[in-house]
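A.,

Following up on our hallway conversation. Structure tokens first:
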């Protein structure tokens, strides 16, 4: 598993790298979120046991129901990972 740098500047830089590649510049669509997660955790979505996992994650993160994940919604994911792994 890759180490996630949890400094605010590093997280913003990571988010900005993927946000807006194929859509809005201040948010990530499902494909952009998948690319970010695959960068951090290579192979995460290769042959998943649950093919709907990314859809479920996207739905859980998308609090305003705009089919995009903005930076605040992304931080919910980061916080959950940090809490779950104790990092």
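Then the amino acids I'd put at each of the 87 positions:
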């Amino acid at each position: 598993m890759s180490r996630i740098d949890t400094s605010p500047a590093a997280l913003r830089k990571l988010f900005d790298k993927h946000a807006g590649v194929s859509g809005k510049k201040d948010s990530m669509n499902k494909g952009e979120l998948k690319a970010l997660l695959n960068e951090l955790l290579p192979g995460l979505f290769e042959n998943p046991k649950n093919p709907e996992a990314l859809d479920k994650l996207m739905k859980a993160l998308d609090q305003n129901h705009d089919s995009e994940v903005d930076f605040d919604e992304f931080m919910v994911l980061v916080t959950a990972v940090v809490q779950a792994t104790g990092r």
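Helices lie at 8-18, 30-40, 53-61, 71-85. Curious whether your intuition agrees with the design.

B.
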